[in-house]
Specification:
Layout: E1 6-8, E2 11-13, E3 17-24, E4 31-39, H1 41-58, H2 63-79, H3 81-92, H4 96-121, E5 128-130, E6 135-141, E7 145-148, H5 163-170, E8 175-178, H6 184-200, E9 208-211, H7 216-224, E10 230-234, H8 237-250, E11 254-257, E12 263-266, H9 268-287, E13 299-303, H10 306-321, H11 330-345, E14 349-352, E15 367-372, H12 373-378, H13 380-383, E16 391-397, H14 400-408, E17 413-419, H15 427-438, E18 441-446, E19 486-492, E20 514-515, E21 518-519
Length: 520
């Protein structure tokens, strides 16, 4: 069986491997050819050297050139759309349409083009000029970036194609992509397209590099290397925190997306107005994509009453009657079962599910848990165990005041939503709960499920720990996502001809600049 090469220094070369692995089709369990290498430190060392050399060129590169590369890459992706969709479907069991072809692929190329526009305009650099003191500052590239991609979005969050990749490149940094082991072939196709675009647009050889897997110790060594500027990681909390400890000890920035239960609060009068519609909306959101979204609504808070009881019955029936989807891998299935075990042992009542699913391949029955507010408050940490998949926990508070206490015990989350009555009858309750929830989430929603993450400049796909490693940054939304992979660079009394172009007095480019307190 053939062994796939790694992309290092602009060339597809044989890996200095320590072992091999294969991807598997989660719908059938079939191992997929070919073999992929598990890289040794020798591969990483070569990639780091090439990335460092590329950075020395890219850090002073005009934004126009970087934009041209990103746009050329988007075109290459569109030319390979059919092959990408087909292989991603085999490796992840995600539907070809509408998920991969109709949603994720255009989102991916759209992100790249938004990043190109930001690189071209330079607004992301936030130039500030103080003429009285002759001090000037702007953001600049931080250095080579390692991107660890997740299993659930092989295109839009992929290590060689997704939002972290686009943001890092647009900010002037080369990327070392670490493929997710669930979809290595898909990532390779993206890296091939990126490399072709890099050659056509005259980018340095190490602009984009690809390795597929390393040992845990080598991963930790990578994120701490002196040549690395920063790391972007999306994945499990345990693996992410291991990398974070290593990066923190070395003083290296690392931006993590870890886990989130994304609480949804349905206030009583909202349920009275349209309880059936909200049950349908919630079930559809929770089970969409077999629940494998980082913004999946994994926790619901209700206030005890007849409308809450009806809602629970309705949602349970919808979960039992809905088709069971395929999970991304055997490891996701195992993790979901383990989360269910933890919740059951903590006292959560099983309303439906937890057993084997009736779908294809890796699957678990659609699962719904219920717990009282009192039980939640006795062990809030355990009750917030993330069950990544087609699963959710309903918490019934005895009163509005107890609902407030429940929200006060929440960990940090990516999102939180409150549904309130159109009539305004829930407004007082909203005014009590919203300020508490606001501090617990990166994105607060009203009367809307959290599952969709629009690629908008105003989007925050981040939040307090453990949703992410830092509440001040977003993984989605250009240009805000770019500042993760940038450093603030100040120039004090530096001669004009030595300044970056964007800070010079004769600058004529498109970027907005804050000059003596006035945007111009």
């Amino acid at each position: 069986m053939s062994l796939e090469p790694v992309l290092i220094a602009g060339e597809w070369r044989e890996s200095e491997k320590t072992g091999t692995f294969q991807a598997a089709n989660p719908a059938t369990g079939e191992l997929l050819a070919p073999l992929y290498p598990i890289s040794s430190w020798a591969d990483c060392e070569a990639a780091l050297e090439s990335a460092h050399a590329a950075f020395l060129e890219m850090r002073a590169m005009p934004g126009e050139k970087i934009a041209t590369f990103l746009e050329a890459f988007a075109v290459k992706i569109e030319e390979q759309a059919d092959a990408l969709v087909e292989l991603a479907h085999l490796e992840t069991a995600l539907p070809k349409t509408p998920r991969l072809a109709g949603a994720e692929l255009p989102r991916t190329t759209g992100q790249l083009r938004q990043a190109a526009a930001a690189a071209r305009s330079g607004n992301w650099k936030h130039p500030v000029i103080d003429t009285a003191n002759n001090i000037r500052a702007c953001y600049g590239a931080i250095g080579p970036v390692i991107v660890f991609g997740p299993n659930n979005f092989p295109f839009a969050f992929g290590s060689a194609s997704g939002g972290d990749f686009a943001a890092a490149i647009a900010a002037g940094n080369p990327v070392i992509a670490k493929a997710n082991s669930s979809h290595p072939g898909t990532t390779k196709l993206f890296a091939e397209a990126a490399q072709l675009a890099a050659v056509e647009t005259g980018m340095p050889a190490g602009t984009v590099q690809l390795i597929y897997r390393t040992s845990h110790s080598i991963g930790e060594q990578l994120v701490t290397d002196d040549r690395i500027g920063a790391t972007g990681y999306t994945g499990s909390r345990s693996a992410g925190l291991t990398l974070k400890r290593a990066a923190d000890d070395a003083g290296k920035p690392i931006y993590l997306e870890l886990s989130s239960v994304n609480p949804v609060i349905f206030l009583p009068h909202a349920l009275e107005e349209k309880g059936d519609a909200l049950a349908e909306e919630f079930a559809g959101s929770c089970l969409m994509g077999t629940g494998q979204f980082c913004t999946n609504p994994g926790m619901v808070v209700l206030i005890a009453g007849e409308s809450a009881t009806r809602f629970i019955t309705d949602v349970t029936q919808r979960f039992e009657g809905a088709a069971v989807g395929t999970l991304l891998s055997e490891s996701v299935k195992k993790s979901l079962h383990e989360s269910h075990r933890i919740l059951k042992e903590a006292g959560a009542e099983v309303l439906c599910g937890t057993g084997p699913g009736s779908g294809a391949g890796c699957c678990v029955a659609n699962t719904l848990f219920h717990v009282s507010g009192d039980a939640f408050l006795r062990d809030p940490e355990t009750m917030q165990t993330e069950a990544f998949g087609n699963s959710s926990l309903i918490v019934t508070a005895s009163s509005l005041e107890q609902a407030a206490a429940i929200l006060g015990h929440l960990e940090g989350n990516l999102t939180g939503a409150i549904y309130s009555a159109i009539s305004g009858k829930d407004d007082a309750a909203y005014d009590l709960l919203a300020p508490i929830l606001r501090q617990k989430v990166g994105r607060l929603l009203n009367d809307k499920m959290p599952t969709g993450v629009a690629v908008s400049p105003a989007m925050n796909h981040g939040g307090p720990y453990p949703a992410t490693g830092h509440p001040g940054f977003t993984a989605v939304g250009i240009p805000a996502a770019m500042t993760r992979f940038a450093m603030l660079q100040s120039y004090d009394n530096v001669r004009t001809h030595r300044l970056p172009d964007i800070l010079r007095d004769d600058y004529t480019g498109p970027a907005q600049r804050l000059v003596d307190g006035t945007w111009t």
